[in-house]
Amino acid sequence: PMTRFSAFDGTNMKQTRNECNGLFPLRLTSMERFHLLDDNPNFSNSTFAKFEFEGQIDPRLGQQALDIAVDRHPIIKSKIQSDGPRPVWIQVPGFRLAVDWTRTGSSYGPSQLFDIHREPGVHMYVGSDTNSTFVLFHGHHSTCDGIGGVQFTTDWLRIYDNLVHQREPLEGLPRLDPLMLVERNHLRMFS
Prior knowledge:
Blueprint: E1 5-6, H1 14-20, E2 26-27, H2 30-38, E3 46-54, H3 59-72, E4 78-81, E5 88-91, E6 99-100, E7 122-128, E8 132-140, H4 146-164, E9 175-176
Parallel strand pairs: 6-7
Antiparallel strand pairs: 1-9, 2-5, 3-8, 4-5, 7-8
Helix pairs in contact: 3-4
């Protein structure tokens, strides 16, 4: 899904939470429903984004940056409720995306399947050795596509860099408009 951006206006992170009030429950798009129905235990309908770089991530600052990034992307902290006529996204109160910091080596591949009726459809894995770190974003395809996974992980790493350098967490990041989620089912070929 495409997202329109406007210039970052320096307001605090509570703005994103406030803008989401009244947005949820949010209907699934046709494509999100397809990925939900197409999922099965033998072939998880997942998307992955892997980043490798030199150096290591401080787990405390990494988690702090992740909490801020999750607030920017409301569907990442949502699960699917299917007890009505149409499935909808609902936010999970108090959700905190935890990073699996215990993995080492860049050959790790997740085997965990998602039950996005019980939990949000994103996992993050970080592994490192003495010289390098890898970050693996694993998302259920109903939650986001590959571009969304890369955008989310990039936001996380940019926020982390801002925290490490003691800048405002969202400095240099574009302001996301959560209300655009309502229009995510519309194809925008021309702007």
